[in-house]
Amino acid sequence: QVHPVESGGGSVQAGGSLRLSCATSRDTSDTYSMGWFRQAPGKEREGVAFFSSGGFTKYADSVKGRFTISQDDAKNTLYLQMNSLKPEDTAMYYCAAGGLCYTRGSCNYWGQGTEVTVSS
Asked: For residue 118, what pLDDT is reported?
């Protein structure tokens, strides 16, 4: 099992940047398929970016060109670099791992979330 723990959220003005981190308990096959999700107040949770072993990535259309997902070589930490932030990026961001996280957005392990607020 892995236990994702997110950090790096905060408040930033539109156009600014934040980098979210997701630490996992250890390198297991569950860290080979990971993703970032977000949920804004009153909205459904949505997949933002996904990472698969071998360096495969995919992004929601709303964040393409602005967000970058990456994983450290030890596969213990997942990152989400967020640039050119917009007020509509305001949400609780969750890290998830394992299962069919990359292929279907169906992940087995979830963190508690880190809040991102973007002001105009």
From this structure: 98
Residue with tokens 């997902």: 69
Q: Give residue-wise pLDDT tens across range 51-93.
A: 998 889 999 999 999 999 999 877 789 999 999 999 999 999 9
Q: What is the pLDDT of residue 114?
A: 98
101 three-class SS: helix
Which residues, including other chains, have CB under 8 Å from residue 110's CB and lie 6 or more apart?
4, 94, 95, 96
Q: Would you list the DSSP string of 22-86?
A: EE-SS--GGGGEEEEEEE-TTS--EEEEEEETTTEEEE-TTTTTTEEEEE-TTS-EEEEEE-S--
User: Is residue 102 within a helix (H) or strand (E), and if so which, with residue range?
Assistant: helix 101-104
The CA distance from 97 to 102, in Å, is 9
